[in-house]
TrEMBL record:
Organism: Coraliomargarita algicola
Keyword Heme: no
Keywords on record: Signal
Pfam families reported in the protein's UniProt record: BBP2
Signal peptide limits: 1-20
SUPFAM superfamilies named in the record: Porins (SSF56935)
Protein name, per record: Porin
């Protein structure tokens, strides 16, 4: 739903780039994409300088779409180049469509929260806004399993989802915890004026030693060849998990988002995003984006209380060009600057920064 609230994708806004379905028969079709990139990163973290070059097939996804009039279904098979480099079922859900714009969906599906799309075919640039080069610091959920009710009209949208969790359990995502019992997500949007859309949503997760919630709000404005967006996120995490024997330094070396989000006994997160996209031709657009994240966490390190504060900002400039309806090139330069600090002399804080250049090629079908 998040892509429908404003503009379907940067490629629709800036070019004729499309992901048209390949029809097999009256009931079955499929679509997908191949995303590949080259990146070069220069960074300094806790006094250590480094640089990295990477060329990879970042993601391959095939979506099977089933249409039986009032009943539709979708199954997404996804490969991502990460630590596991495995192929998985990203989404698998069935939807019953009722009269008047209402629908009920059951299965595994994407969160309704967040301005930025989950897939590269829906982004306005290569990187995600809250990926600060040292890890994903986003407070927003990704995919979950449950039942969802939605109602959509020409000017409004509302959705309510009852889920088994809000965040992928056992992951490094905000609040990831295997003891989650249930989660509720709600979202709504409305067209406020011509070209202006507002969105408000939230998620709550509860379980053994887990009490998490996050709020997401954003507005988008489209005028002529311009698209503007502003977003703010707030999250609060309460968990009985502790750092234990691994130590806060080890966790911080893995990225403050990982240390705070996975092991924090109590954490507050504030984030915001500002973006502008200008389509200067039928095939090309340029995007500027600024994002900021602030984390304050009370940690329990083997019985020692440690207050951790971490913040980072990211500046991004990207250019997109559509060679054809199915082949798109994105170039990007991003700069990240941040710092973390603690109130415990045993765990020293430090600054970090990084500069990344990326060239991304996306083939869709």
């Amino acid at each position: 739903m998040k892509n429908k609230i404003a503009i379907a994708s940067a490629f629709v806004a800036a070019s004729s780039f499309s992901t048209a379905e390949i029809v097999v028969n009256d009931f079955l079709s499929f679509e997908g994409f191949v995303d590949m990139s080259y990146t070069h990163t220069d960074s300094e973290f806790a006094g250590d300088e480094g640089n990295e070059n990477s060329f990879a097939i970042d993601q391959v996804e095939i979506s099977w779409l089933f249409d039986f009039d009032t009943v539709t279904a979708q199954i997404d098979f996804d490969y991502e180049d990460n630590d596991d480099s495995t192929t998985e079922v990203e989404q698998a859900f069935v939807t019953y469509h009722m009269d008047g714009g209402s629908a009920v969906t059951a299965g595994r599906y994407a969160s309704m929260l967040g301005f930025e799309a989950f897939e590269p075919t829906g982004l306005y640039q290569y990187s995600f806004g809250y990926d600060m080069l040292i890890g994903d610091t986003s407070v927003l959920p990704g995919y979950a399993q449950g039942v969802k009710y939605t109602h959509e009209s020409d000017t409004t949208f509302f959705g309510l989802s009852l889920q088994d969790e809000a965040y992928d359990n056992g992951s490094d995502a905000f609040g990831g915890n295997p003891d989650s019992t249930y989660a509720v997500e709600a979202a709504g949007s409305v067209i406020l004026a011509e070209g202006l859309t507002g969105f408000l949503g939230g998620v709550y997760e509860n379980g053994d030693d887990v009490d998490n919630y996050a709020i997401n709000a954003y507005v988008t404005f489209e005028t002529g060849a311009w698209i503007f967006a502003a977003e703010v996120n707030y999250g609060d995490l309460e968990s009985g998990a502790t750092l234990g024997a691994i130590g806060v330094e080890t966790a911080i070396d893995a990225g403050f988002g990982t240390s705070a989000n996975t092991f924090a006994a109590n954490e507050e997160v504030l984030q915001f995003l500002l973006m502008a996209n200008f389509a200067y031709s039928d095939q090309a657009s340029i995007t500027g984006r600024f994002t900021y994240t602030d984390h304050e966490a009370d940690l329990d390190v083997a019985g020692t209380a440690v207050d951790l504060e971490a913040d980072a900002m990211k500046f991004t400039l990207a250019h997109g060009y559509a060679f054809t309806d199915n082949l798109f090139l994105v170039t990007e330069v991003s700069y990240v600057d941040g710092e973390f600090d603690t109130d415990n002399a045993a765990f020293a804080g430090d600054d970090f920064d990084g500069l990344q250049g990326a060239v991304e090629l996306i083939f869709s079908f």
